[in-house]
Amino acid sequence: MIADSRSTVSAQTRGSSQHMQKKVLIVEDDHDIAHLVQLHLSDLGCQCDLVDDGEVGLQKALKNHYDLIILDLMLPNVDGMEICKEVRSEKKYTPIMMLTSRSEELDRVLGLELGADDYLTKPFSVRELLARVKAIFRRVEAVKDDVEGPRKKQIQFGDLHIDIEKRKVMLKGRKVELTAKEFDLLVLFARNPGKAYTRQSLLDSVWGYTFEGYDHTVNSHINRLRAKIEEDPSDPKFIQTVWGVGYKFAEEE
């Protein structure tokens, strides 16, 4: 079950409802949880589609446009991990929040590795759910608006080419396969060459506040990203270590 009742948060969220206007797919086979999530997201102005079957949820996710998919891990026919994997194989990018009754670290990490944007373990509070949903929407809007600099649809740095709209990366004319978070990290760096980021600031910008303390997540993603785009990952040309601080993207000479 969800820990908070609807009445305790509806008044707080109703004021922002007219600003959201997002379309959300909720794939959850526990009907009580699904309807409670729908009621609270409606207070944010979200239009929600409810599905209790994994196969139907996957079809809807691939066929329609959604601003967010809230995805239970354990589902009939097709599980949440497979849905996440299939959605991430598509060209279009849709934020995904995964729900599960299991709290094992392995499940959480696997979901994130497959490209989930956030992760909640049941039971969870409605306040936390809404805070995380709003944080996801803010991050997506920040990328769209490119608040840290001029709006760019494509970035070229030496042999590295980034097409932000198509979420495609090319290196020396060859396509580089990146996970959702690897791509988000690369875009953040490439839009701000020379700017040093701490691991926590990268967590805040790419994963959101809910991943405080997951510094190893940043390290592992940086290592995999370097392995994919650097000629010599031990002597990186693009993503450089700033000792005592974190990482930065190289400045073009």
Note down, in words, how this protein is organized.
The chain has 253 residues and is α/β, with parallel strands linked by helices. The chain folds into 2 domains: 139 residues, Rossmann fold (3-Layer(aba) Sandwich); 96 residues, Winged helix-like DNA-binding domain superfamily/Winged helix DNA-binding domain (Arc Repressor Mutant, subunit A). Helices cover 43% and strands 19% of the residues. The chain contains 10 helices and 12 strands. The strands form 3 sheets. The chain has a 5-stranded parallel sheet, with helices on both faces. Strands 6-7-8-9 form a 4-stranded antiparallel sheet, with helices on one face. A 3-stranded antiparallel sheet has the order 10-12-11. A hairpin with a 4-residue loop joins strand 7 and strand 8. Helix 4 packs parallel to helix 5 and helix 8 packs across helix 9. The chain is elongated, with a radius of gyration of 19 Å. About 6% of the residues have low confidence.
Key terms:
43% helix; 2 domains; 253 residues; alpha/beta; 5-stranded parallel beta sheet; 4-stranded antiparallel beta sheet; Rossmann fold
Element layout with pairings:
Layout: H1 7-14, H2 17-20, E1 23-27, H3 31-43, E2 47-51, H4 54-63, E3 68-72, H5 80-88, E4 96-100, H6 105-113, E5 118-121, H7 126-145, E6 154-157, E7 160-163, E8 168-171, E9 174-176, H8 180-191, E10 197-198, H9 199-207, H10 215-229, E11 239-242, E12 246-249
Helix pairs in contact: 4-5, 8-9, 8-10, 9-10
